[in-house]
Design a protein that fits this description.
There is one protein chain. By secondary structure, the chain is mainly β. The chain is 11% helix and 47% strand. Strands 3, 4, 6, 7, 9, 10, 12, 15, 16 and 17 form a ten-stranded mixed β-sheet that branches. The protein has a seven-stranded mixed β-sheet with strand order 2-1-5-8-11-13-14, with no helix packed on it. The protein is globular and about 55 Å long.
Amino acid sequence: MGELELQVAVRQGRSVAVQQYHRGALRILRPHYLDESGQVCYVMVNPGGAYLGADLFVIDVEVEAGASLLLTTQSATKVYRTPGSFAEQRMTLRLGDNAQLELAPDQLIAYREASYRQRTHVTVCPTSSLIMAEVVTPGWSPDGSSFKYEELRLRNEIHVAGTHGTQLLALDNLLIRPPLADVTGMGFMEGFSHLGSLIAVDPRVDQALADDLHALAAGHDAHTGVSLTARQAGTAALVLRSLSNSTGELNRLLRACTGLLRERWYGQAPMNLRKY
């Protein structure tokens, strides 16, 4: 089991951690700043290197009013065989007024006979800004074929806080069970093996932005669609899904999309995490 708690606030013009806690198989590295914006970047680390059967990882992140956080991982999340029970990650994200959070993990790789569940619960304010990007890819198997894992269940639930409680803004639920059906065909993976997702929540989300992202994605070797939610309390969410046969291509596409959002919304250059 691993637990991680991180609370970020503004102090003297920069975002800093005002509270952090970890236990078990989760850590965060020392903070660093990629530019002069004051946004703090933290890197999550799993010293065990992978998720195994019955593993549970609980992550709680709060970004206070006006603060800005970029949260990433040190390397890919690898899920190996999980006999007996699935591996699970539960993440809770809370954003205050005018808070900014970018969640940019490395790819999720599910190997042969792996079962993994990921649940992310997000609460934003009407003025919050959230960008979440992720790539899912099947891991190596002895016969060289894809989709040898048992199950991937990725659930994102996003609520908007108001004076009378919270309202549901978006519920994004992805379930892939290769043993139960052919997931490679029409209406699902469409002959592709890799999946990329981008979720953006911001009061500036609109159809024009969706059109711009769709046009940007058209320049990549991937099959992409973009959806918008209805507005709630003055904000809205955008969900981009992209299919490809290349982790690298999906990473380039998502970096291009997040780069557009960073420049347009925050006046920041595209992120350069300099991991490799």
